Amino acid sequence: MAGPEQVRAWAGMSRLGRARSPYRRDESDCPGHAEPSVSLIRVAWAGRTSTYDQQDPTLSLPRQLRASQMVLPDNALIVAHFYDIESGRKDLAARGRGSAHEQFQIPIPRDGGIQDLLAEAERPDRRFDYVICESIDRIARRTYIATDIENRLERAGVRLLAADEPFQLAQNGRKAKIATQLLTRRVKQGISEFYVVEMLEKSWDGFAVHTEEGYNVGKPCYGYRAKRVPHPVPAKRAKGQKKTFLEPDPLQAPVVKKIFTWRLEERLGYQAIADRLNLDPASNPPPTPVDPSRAIGRWTYSNVRDILSNPKHTGHMVWNRHARKTGGNTLNPVSEWIWSPEPVHEALVSLDTYIQVQQVSGHRFGSRSAAGANVNHPQTKRVYRLRTYLFCDLCGRRMFGKTRHQHAYYVCAPKRDYVPKEHPVSIFVREDALVDKLNAFFAHHVFGAYRRHLLDASIRILDAAAHQEREQRVAALRRSIADTEAKIKRTVRNLELVDDPDRDLIRDINERRAELRAQKQQFESQLAEVEERILHAPNPDLIDALPVAKIQIDELSDDLARALFEALRLEIHYNKHTNQATCRITLTGQTITAARHAARTAVAPLRRQQGGDQQEQNNKDQGHVPADDHPGPILVVPPVGQAPAVSAAWDEKTTLA
User: Fold this and answer.
1) Which of 186, 560, 611, 612 would be a feasible disulfide site paired with 607, CB 3.0-4.6 Å?
2) In this structure, are residues 470 and 527 in contact, taking their beta carbons and an 8 Å threshold?
3) How far is CA 111 from CA 108, 301, 429, 455, in A?
4) Domain 224-364 has CATH 3.90.1750.20
5) pLDDT tens for residues 499-521?
6) What is the pLDDT of residues 444-462, one digit of tens each?
7) What pLDDT, on a 0 to 100 scale, did the predictor assign at position 633?
8) Are the C-beta atoms of 109 and 62 separated by less than 8 Å?
9) Burial of 78 by CB count in 10 Å (0-12 exposed, 13-18 middle, 19+ buried)?
10) What DSSP character marks residue 397?
């Protein structure tokens, strides 16, 4: 009876089941032919190390290769070597494209990285039928990416092996058993990904606590220098390692304050500030990058932007502002930033100043800060005096300048898909009509003799009683805070009066000190709330800081006009339906000095043109002293710990002719 052996003999196992042609001569028919030797198994090796600064690839990669060679059978030979030096958590599209391996003399020939391995596996002339690695986490640290690579190799007919997993290779035509290997691999992948994610979470929490305690990470930002302290861990302290706080740099700190002042008071653009700093590089030393060889020796647009956007200048330590590892160094939302609860180093600017400076970017967005014509646009025909400051009241967009029939217009023309309801396709308003009404607004409401009487009633009538009550409340809270601090010191001093204090006394003193600290924190919270109310209370006295004079916008140069508009925080909103323009200025205690200076600078050339002596005499006849002789009740930003200055805004609606 015929059996399986006879069937196999007839089929010819060496020909994978295909019948032998009776007309074909085979080598086995030749005299002296020996039995075929065991076939050679061709294997490719895949290796990876995470980072070149924390590991030694010259040791790790050879160790991985040796571990892989030791588990292969005698008839298996590694014929190709693929390895990378990179994180195993990268997306597959970003893997295998680095050049970190070029920095080391690794004693293993390299045929490419993971991308080269996948590309050759899918070619019909590939050099291998198996791929082996030391452990599956060397292929990828993320399960999804590792299984994706495994699936691509499997579709190409290449099996992925791991040295630390049990595996069997196909023998005698039988399919290899992979159930145990598959279970082991999936368990190890889950454990590996859990380990990495857990370590990242713990590391993130550690950095958060590190930040809250005030320690700096990396190079100190411009304006500060490193203040190194011994490391709190004894073992690291013994090796000379230190931690870093920040302290003001005597040369750079004044430059930071200057930059914030220019941005807040004059609302200068980044490049305008950089150009002004470059006029005196000795007094304004430019920043030095982490790699000093990349320094260009002057201020740039990005230097100024980085300084103005860095919250560390407020005295708080801040971390996680950028997604450096997962987001390509993009800026994280402010809600994800980690702040120290209290200031941990000397502040160069107040937190309120920092917030106001960030708001300037919204005002500047989409508009040049430089005065004069746009030199970068060859078709520019004229200077549009009110650009940046004129907005469409129907959609909120900034209107842009356009010339028609030799007249300057401002236009709001949203794209077809972005036109709001009841908004015309395009809105045009002539510049000369706006300038005439703006001159009238300045002449009567801003620089006129009776400007205070023209203020809105809600602003003109300052509740003196409420203001006095708030000031008294601030003084009382400061006294309470000082008294509480004195009580805390006296409570601790009581221990010095007792030679041998018992546990009960120490416990009572600690409890009393905790109560006093909680009481002090409550007083400080109340003080901050009252000061915030004072900050937003209207103050009509600010208008008296501006000179009484006649200013004609159309007679000023563009740079003087823009400086005046920026200092006054001018905004003009035009409503097409009512044909009305609303002019609005805002004065604050932080900007009133710049506003007064800009107004005096704008008045000076007009006085020379119109006869300054007669103008001053008219002011004296009306009982007004020129601004040069009497500055008026200017409110200056007080030192930290005192009540901040207040602000007020004035606006006026006028119908265009």
Assistant:
1) 612
2) no
3) 10, 44, 69, 80
4) yes
5) 777 788 778 888 888 888 888 88
6) 888 888 887 777 655 555 5
7) 28
8) no
9) middle
10) P
Q: How confident is the model at residue 327 (pLDDT cuts 50, 70, 90)?
A: low
Which sequence spans correspond to the domains of the chain?
Answer: 41-198, 224-364, 390-459+541-655, 463-535
For the chain, how many residues are written?
657
* Residues facing residue 582 across a β-bridge: 573, 653
Q: Are strands 338-339 and 330-331 parallel, antiparallel or unpaired?
A: unpaired
The model's pLDDT over 169-227, given as tens digits with 9 standing for 90+, comes to 876 656 777 888 888 888 888 888 888 888 888 888 888 888 888 999 888 999 999 99
Q: Within 138-178, where are the H helices?
A: 143-155
Q: Please, are residues 79 and 42 in contact by the beta-carbon 8 Å criterion?
A: yes
What is the CA 222 to chain-centroid distance, rounded?
16
The overall pTM is greater than 0.90: no
d(CA 71, CA 78): 12
DSSP code of residue 307: H
User: Of 196, 198, 208, 469, which Cα lies nearest the Cα of 318?
Assistant: 208
Q: Is pLDDT above 80 for 486?
A: yes
Class of domain 41-198: alpha beta
Burial 121-141 (b: 16+ CB within 10 A, else e): beeeebebbbbbbbbbbbbbb
Instruction: Output the CA torsion 608→609→615→617 (10° steps).
Output: 60
